[in-house]
Amino acid sequence: xxxxxxxxxxxxxxxxxxxxxxxxxxxxxxxxxxxxxxxxxxxxxxxxxxxxxxxxxxxxxxxxxxxxxxxxxxxxxxxxxxxxxxxxxxxxxxxxxxxxxxxxxxxxxxxxxxxxxxxxxxxxxxxxxxxxxxxxxxxxxxxxxxxxxxxxxxxxxxxxxxxxxxxxxxxxxxxxx
Length: 177
Hints:
Layout: H1 5-15, E1 20-25, E2 31-36, E3 40-42, E4 45-51, H2 55-62, E5 65-72, E6 76-86, H3 89-98, H4 103-106, H5 117-126, E7 137-151, E8 159-166, E9 169-175
Antiparallel strand pairs: 1-2, 1-5, 3-4, 4-7, 5-6, 6-7, 7-8, 8-9
């Protein structure tokens, strides 16, 4: 058990990069979850990019709290709960510059209806190869207030630890499986 859960995450992530599930909610508490790509993480938090005009972007604007779940093949789980902040314009531009071959897709209006696959392919064809970053394409950082790790064992006596952020680090509590 590490005293810093972010060190645990870094070790697990270096071993295998797994999908990330992002959970958000409206102000009324209506939840939604979707897979996103973890693009960066450090001591400040976990960063992903999406459209600020998408459902997740609108929910984060109204209710800037989120939960993340990483699952390693029913062996380990890493959960994060925290507040969400937008990354800086400099970080957005640097990320956009690295999206070779994916920039035009990011320029889509996520969650908006489209007639059919042919219309989608036409939209891709008409999009310039290197479009400028749309102002709605932004990064979000989930700043963890609480983290939970779970490690499976064959006898179902799993190891669970909940970390709560404190001024000078993390307080760790072992939980029953």
